[in-house]
Write a structure and sequence with these properties.
The structure is a homodimer.
Chain A: E1 5-9, H1 16-22, E2 25-26, E3 30-32, E4 49-51, E5 55-62, E6 65-72, E7 81-85, E8 97-106, E9 111-119, E10 125-134, E11 141-150, E12 155-164, E13 183-190, E14 195-201, E15 207-218, E16 221-222, E17 226-231, E18 235-244, E19 250-260, H2 269-279, H3 283-301, H4 309-325, E20 339-342, H5 355-365, H6 367-378, H7 381-390, E21 413-415, E22 422-424, H8 433-448, H9 451-472, E23 474-476, E24 481-483, H10 509-528, H11 533-541, H12 545-556, E25 562-563, E26 567-568, H13 582-588
Helix pairs in contact in A: 5-6, 5-8, 6-8, 6-9, 8-9, 8-10, 9-10, 9-11, 10-12
Chain lengths: 593, 593
């Protein structure tokens, strides 16, 4: 089962944040970065826990303008667990000698484990072994196990287990000038069996409650030790005081329940979290159930390749992270596929066009997840209609970046991290997402034959998008063809012409071809629907016979720019651009990435 | 289309609350009682707006005990619209002469209209005509139209349009000793186009925002009049000042947007409500779309009968209210079928066994709604497992009364409204709901062939329920049969034996037969699932071969009580009960209902 494991040998502080992202554990509902249990936000560490679709908006003043961004919120850190010997410091890998460090991401079972020996300034050597999971079976539960073995010392120690709500969105360097405070802590509470923390996002008013039950064991025997609960305004922690003996392991289990105000079947989140933690089983039992769930998923999900262990492992890494982003737990959660999973804050957790590449996988293996992802778009159809209206167009115009409610979340101005300048951002003109969404509907239908989805939801989105493209097209009498002007294609490095005030480019080939496909296919979909479904839909969407004829015409008379009449040009006028001054830039900047 | 109309002629204050319930308009997401627009909670009027599944818990001190009840919350009243002539009083049908009163519930289009003439103490006669809808098409919108015509006078008038958050749960007389305050008003706001009010339930923390845009028209010409917005802590109102002329009608349109924190595709409710109301169309357009939606529903829903107009109308009244309770808008809302719809506060909006009678209708006509109602149970399976565990039994024990999170919501003590005594309430022993739920799953599967639902969700519920019944059964060696002791059957008037401390009755025939059916059918369902699905499910639910053999045995050896060996007895010992002292009670109380 080697090809299910990612193994990191040796402690490499510089690489830690990358490892955190790649070792994220998630279950399609929550995701937690693979940060060290004992770490807090610092130079080399960035613990992050994200809720699928858990967004919040904040306003920042930049360059004398107020801008608003919607972020994927970093919620409280449930991981934190640490220890110190009496008179010693809390464990911090950046401040002590680390030996035999090994970290393993076991993708087969969705378990992240770490093992290492540390030696502190007083020569005390201790071994730490940890395992953790974010349960695929019990979606509200996460858990970790920590085994501490003093190798050459005995003495009294303190173990701390915290729920830390003192969290900001601080994961992406280029966003650091922007407002990053998204959470208010509503309450901390000592429970019969542990502790709980409840927070609320300060704009979307999304509540998340976390409850934690931490238990110490000597083997399988529960240790009764002195315990103190300390809470401050933003966090709550249990401190355990005990004597550690050379060569004898102390095992800590931290079981966590997470509920939010968006959940089904709840009274209110903090009540559910407390009740759940009272019933939650021990680590081993949770692990067993979690393993079974991953086992079932892999039976449906595994892609086996012939070309070597590394490729095989990489394919599984992709499948693993995709399933952690949208799993059977995600069905009905009203989420889309974010550009980087729920694994961090880059791209703000927004939904771009990535479904285009990922839904073919779900269509065949997990059609219910694919459908749920498409429903994310359906529920935002009204907003897309408003966007089309505001652009003076018909139908539905889905945003390039979509988040909570489906408005355009693309930034209006964008920081060039090299120059430090804020520049206008035209990337929202990537209307081609409106071909991708239509394509995903068609592809889902082809794979599943789900005619009910097509009739009730899919066709409405598809025709609304077609209506947008139909109204966006212009007939160019010189060319004798239809053109799409002022758009941006998938190449985000070209968003306008030099020395031109025009936003966007004309006749991006990808966009033109794909839009024409949508318009042709819309007519085929109408044929697929039985009457009176088709007629009623056209009536509701106010699409008349003339509009259908227009679609047909555009579908066969779309303009395509060519270089020398043979090679399709990326967009009209591409051939007139000057070559990029590669040498000049290579001289000016070491790395021109 | 007479058979789609309920017509009330004449103003009958005594009958008003019944009319309010029967004239409730809803769309499977929200429901608003048919109270007069100009009325507030009073002797004859009880405006109520309810959210499907919108519950809140409150504690009350009764008979020295603290009891907690979960109520369906009465949310702010969006209806309120009233007028007064200068120096006159606000319209109140209880205080003026009412002529030509007619109220029509048009079930074909989901429209409630009223028309009447009033004469005030100064002899001013005015005609009022109103129409309203809760949009089946645009689920976040409701709207009303009010036409005022001064018949014999002219003068300045004031019209008020309010969103009233000064609301308690006050609809059921017998609950009035209980805590009835469920709402905190979070904010009132004056919008560019109107007003908004945001409230939050004080325990479940469910947020509802309402925004209203009120516009006055002279025919189709918008009237620009003096307007003043007045808000206090719990409500906000727009006041319009204008001159009315004899014989000239003034038409007011009030368009309302309602969003809650449970909605999909939202940033936060008050933002969505304000944005929606800015885009919402005029009354006529909303009405047109609403009509189209009802038209489509009736095409699938209508039940046509041959035995007379009255029966036909009644059948439609039932279908109409069922569809207002759970409609295509309800799919995915995590709601069940409440005993009295979302039409008022009786039964607290709880979910009993009513699905048993109603899902056969949905199964054939709206299978997606039926499935969504079953998913309400699936999401509460974990709570049902806890309940079984706490009762010392296996599997899943669903509650007799289910609400927000699926715990047992039946009262522990119950007020006898006649004697004023609080008595222990054993009705929670109606475990037979756990046969009804299983039956609904089977029935849905039979009607739809939805094997995916059965494999992923239905079978898990069904087998968990079977496991409960299997562990509840006891083998009576004297009888040579299995018995179910201490249960309550559907006859809620018999919940224990006289002069016995035992809660519940033994061997209720309905329960025994139905439970045996569940146990037999569970085995059939296992046969229907392909392996390895069946095996994996048994493994997950920890059901072994012995347990399956036990089910088979119980299924064929259930005890049934008989009267004289021929007629099935309602329960064991029924024949030993004394006859009810009918005469004595008839003498003591006029009405022994």
């Amino acid at each position: 089962m080697d090809n299910f494991q990612i193994v990191y040998s040796g402690w490499d502080p510089e690489e830690q944040k990358l490892r955190e992202a790649l070792c994220t554990l998630g279950n399609g509902y929550i995701a937690t970065r693979g940060a060290a249990e004992e770490s807090k936000d610092s130079k080399n560490n960035y613990p992050g826990t994200y809720l699928a679709g858990g967004y919040n908006r904040a306003k920042s003043n930049i360059a004398d303008k107020e801008i608003e961004n919607e972020d994927l919120v970093n919620f409280p850190n449930w991981l934190y667990l640490n220890f110190r010997p009496e008179s010693g410091s809390w464990l911090n890998l950046d401040e002590c000698e680390v030996q035999d460090y090994q970290q393993v991401l076991d993708m087969e079972s969705g378990i992240l484990s770490r093992s290492f020996v540390i030696e502190d300034s007083e020569g005390r050597k201790s071994k730490i072994e940890s395992r953790r999971l974010v349960s695929m079976r019990d979606m509200h539960n996460a858990a970790l196990e920590w085994i501490l073995t003093p190798l050459n010392w005995s003495g009294s120690i303190e173990i701390v287990s915290e729920l830390d709500g003192n969290i900001t969105n601080n994961g992406v360097e280029r966003y650091r000038d922007l407002e990053s405070r998204h959470l208010d802590v509503l309450s901390t509470q000592e429970l019969k069996d542990g502790i709980s923390l409840t927070v609320q996002t300060n704009q979307t008013q999304l509540v998340m409650a976390q409850a934690a039950r931490t238990t110490l064991f000597d083997g399988n025997h529960k240790l009764e030790v002195d315990t103190k609960t300390i809470s401050n305004k933003k966090s709550i922690a249990q401190h355990f005081f005990l004597n550690a003996k050379e060569g004898i392991s102390v095992r800590a289990e931290k079981i966590v329940s997470i509920y939010t105000s968006r959940d089904k079947a709840i009274s209110e989140p903090s009540l559910e979290a407390s009740e759940n933690i009272a019933f939650a089983p021990l680590f081993d039992q949770l692990l067993k159930r979690h393993r079974q769930a991953w086992n079932r998923l892999w039976k449906q999900a595994d892609i086996q390749l012939d070309n070597g262990a590394k490729t095989q492992r990489l394919a599984r890494l992709h499948v693993f992270h995709i399933l952690q982003t949208a799993s059977p737990n995600s069905v009905g959660l009203d989420i889309g596929i974010p550009a980087r999973g729920w694994h961090g804050e880059a791209y703000r957790g927004h939904i771009f066009w990535d479904e285009l590449f990922i839904t073919p996988f779900y269509n065949l293996r997990f059609p219910d997840i694919a459908k749920s992802l498409l429903m994310y778009r359906y529920y935002r159809l009204e907003k897309a209609r408003h966007a089309a209206k505001e652009a003076g167009l018909r139908g539905a115009l889905y945003p390039w970046q979509s988040g909570s409610n489906g408005r355009e979340e693309s930034q209006k101005i964008h920081l060039n991290p090299q120059s430090g300048n804020w520049l206008p951002d035209h990337t929202y003109l990537q209307y081609h997402v409106n071909a991708a969404i239509a394509y995903n509907i068609w592809n889902y239908y082809k794979a599943t034959g789900d005619h009910e989805f097509l009739s009730c939801f899919g066709a409405e989105i598809f025709l609304s998008i077609a209506s947008f493209w139909g109204s966006k097209a212009e007939f160019d009498t010189d060319k004798g063809r239809y053109v799409f002007l002022q758009v941006v294609g998938p190449d985000e490095y070209h968003t306008s012409y030099p020395d031109s005030d025009q936003q966007g480019l004309n006749n991006n080939a990808y966009t033109n071809v794909f839009a024409a496909w949508v318009l042709q296919m819309a007519l085929d979909i109408l044929d697929l629907l039985e009457n009176p479904t088709a007629e009623r839909l056209l009536q509701r969407l106010e699409i008349d016979e003339d509009e259908l004829l227009l679609w047909k015409d555009i579908g066969t008379k779309i303009y395509l720019p060519f270089l020398d009449g043979e090679v399709i040009s990326q967009f009209e006028g591409y051939e007139d651009l000057e070559e990029f001054p590669w040498e000049e830039y290579r001289k000016k900047y070491d790395n021109i990435q």
